[in-house]
Specification:
Elements (H helix, E strand, L loop, with lengths): L1 H8 L6 H8 L3 H7 L3 H24 L5 H18 L1 H7 L7 H27 L8 H13 L1 H4 L8 H17 L1
């Protein structure tokens, strides 16, 4: 709800009272869970980052091939961005956080990126992926996927799974052809 309001009204124009009203709660009830609007924004990021990291760790720990792990990694992230579009849209505006919280956000993102890079590195090492630069391949893939939050809206005749499959199939081509 907070992320939706941040997008609709703007982060700076949205108040804790606005959020409380939308949730039919008191401001005091909101402040029981968060210290400030900035803390709420940070918690939105942490919620998403934690879920993404957990999903990716589960994929990495599977017995799947490197190719299948990358396919699942891409699809998982695409689907999660679509499902939590408002949250992803607002967390990409991390410049609204204090330096201290911004550093924590960067650490969370670095953790995810390192895990994602390990999938690519494993695929390069076993000959599944053809790239001379795993770091740039990671940035190409994640940059493409992360941009979904800016353009996505439900489309008639095109399921979320179809979008995830399209991204997976086409981004993997970059590494296998």
């Amino acid at each position: 709800m907070a992320a939706n309001l941040f997008i609709q009204k703007g982060y700076y124009s949205t108040t804790i009272e606005d959020i409380a009203n939308e949730l039919r709660m008191t401001k005091g009830a909101i402040y029981y869970y968060v210290n400030s609007k900035e803390d709420l924004l940070f918690q939105c990021h942490t919620l998403v980052a934690t879920k993404c990291i957990e999903n990716l760790q589960e994929i990495i720990e599977s017995n799947d091939t490197s190719l299948k792990k990358l396919e699942k990694s891409i699809e998982s992230l695409v689907l999660y961005i679509i499902e939590e579009n408002a949250v992803f849209n607002i967390i990409n505006r991390h410049n609204m956080l204090s330096e201290e919280l911004h550093k924590k956000v960067i650490l969370q993102r670095d953790c995810y990126e390192e895990l994602f890079e390990s999938v690519l590195e494993d695929g390069k090492n076993d000959g599944s992926f053809h790239t001379e630069n795993v770091k740039l391949a990671k940035l190409l893939i994640l940059g493409s996927i992360n941009n979904i939050s800016t353009w996505y809206k439900p489309r008639e005749g095109q399921s979320n799974k179809e979008i995830a499959n399209f991204y997976s199939k086409n981004l993997i081509k970059v590494l296998t052809e």
